[in-house]
Amino acid sequence: TWKWVVGPMFLYLCERLVRFWRSQQKVVITKVVIHPFKTIELQMMKKGFKMEVGQYIFVKCPAVSKLEWHPFTLTSAPEEDYFSIHVRIVGDWTEGLFNACGCDKQEFQEAWKLPKIAVDGPFGTASEDVFSYETVMLVGAGIGVTPFASVLKSVWYKYCHDATNLKLKKIYFYWLCRDTHAFEWFADLLQSLEAQMQERNNAEFLSYNIYLTGWDETQATHFVVHHEEEKDVITGLKQKTLYGRPNWENEFRTIAGRHPGSRIGVFLCGPEGLADTLNKQSISNSEADPRGVHFIFNKENF
């Protein structure tokens, strides 16, 4: 028995030592951005840090807790000279990080006053395979949109430099959110992408559908009054926000009809219930014929 135990234990100890060494490397917070809906963005730099789209890191802030490590998806693109995370303030630890960064104060915070941060990672996820497909469906629920922020930023950079070498030809992006304020921090990225694709006469490259799943009577009246305006009243995008939840069966059938005989990557970052639905739709809408359309399902749960 000891022969079977010693080998895995040795590998485990080596892995823990590597992770400890990585977590001791100096991390510099270069910028803290306060977004609406109790969300902050931390932009950081670390020597030798390399990432791919959709990856995540573990973060520790000794000023808040000396032992707690929390996972956060990277929202920056590999092409940027920094890496960033978006933190939504929903608990004691995130509230402590919010205060430690001076976000609760009105005056400008000096860089040397920002807390020390330890980072372990990055670690891989299914989202890394986005660029291996010609057609993809990206589905984010609430704050689960964060890995796709990295993907869409990387797409934007690749388009700016050399779009001809990009295998990815079509993106169907779905974002489901309960509250209108959550759209605000992400809408500017979509606006940049929208403008970029129109300048290059390739507006069809990105099809995005934003669904608002919760609203009250006052908001509903406001939406009706401004529905005929050129840009959406919530996001400021030309594509209007949809209300309710998507009919996934119709969405899969429509996409399958547009891309016959292709492999379509389906990427989700969201709750388990939505993952079950998309997995069933991926299976039921894939053809038995190897030359037919096939949906390949990938997920991250939170």
Report what the structure shows.
The structure is a single chain. Helix content is 32%, strand content 26%. It has 302 residues and is α/β, with parallel strands linked by helices. It has two domains: 25-123, Translation factors (Elongation Factor Tu (Ef-tu), domain 3, Beta Barrel), CATH 2.40.30.10; 128-299, Nucleotide-binding domain of ferredoxin-NADP reductase (FNR) module (Rossmann fold), CATH 3.40.50. Strands 10-9-8-7-11-12 form a six-stranded parallel β-sheet, sandwiched between helices. A three-stranded antiparallel β-sheet has the order 1-2-5, with no helix packed on it. β9 (206-212), α5 (217-225) and β10 (242-243) form a beta-alpha-beta unit. α3 packs parallel to α4 (184-199). The radius of gyration is 21 Å and the shape is globular. The mean pLDDT is 79.
Strand content: 25-35%
Provide mean pLDDT, rounded.
79
How many strands, what sense, and barrel or not for the largest sheet?
A: 6 strands, parallel
Please, how many domains? 2
Secondary structure: number of strands:
12
The first-level CATH class of the largest domain is given as: Alpha Beta
Regions with little confidence, pLDDT below 50 for 5+ residues: none
Structural class: alpha/beta
Q: If helices are DSSP runs of H or I spanning 4 or more residues, what is the number of helices?
A: 7
